Amino acid sequence: MLPGPSPDVSTFDQAAFELFTTDLIEAGYEPAGNDKRMWVGPADSALAGLTDAEKQRIEIRDGWPYRHPYLYVAGLTGRRHVSASDNVCLWDEDDDSYGWLRLSQVRERIAAWCADQRTGGTQPVHDAQLYYEGIAGSELVILDLDTLKENPEFVRDGAYADFRGELINQAYRLKPGGSVRGVWFRRLTITAPPTNLTGFRVLLTPRQQVRFDRLCREVNGARTRLATLLWDEGPVVAMMVIRLRQSDGRLQTDALEASSDGPSVMALRAGPDATALRGMAVTIFGAGAVGSNLAVVLAKAGVGRLILVDRARLRPGDVTRHAASPSYVGLPKVEATKQTLLEFRPALDVEAIQGTAWSQSDVQALLVGSDLAIDATGNRAYVDMLSDMAQRMAPPCRLMTAALYLGGAVAAIRVQVADSASIRGGVSTDWLRALSAQVAETPPEQWEPGCGSPVNNAPPWAVLAAASLAAQTAADILTGRFTEDLDLIEVYTPLDSPPLNVRGVHVFRLDN
Question: Among 36, 114, 126, 236, which one has the highest count of C-beta atoms within 10 angstroms of its own C-beta?
Answer without folding.
Answer: 114
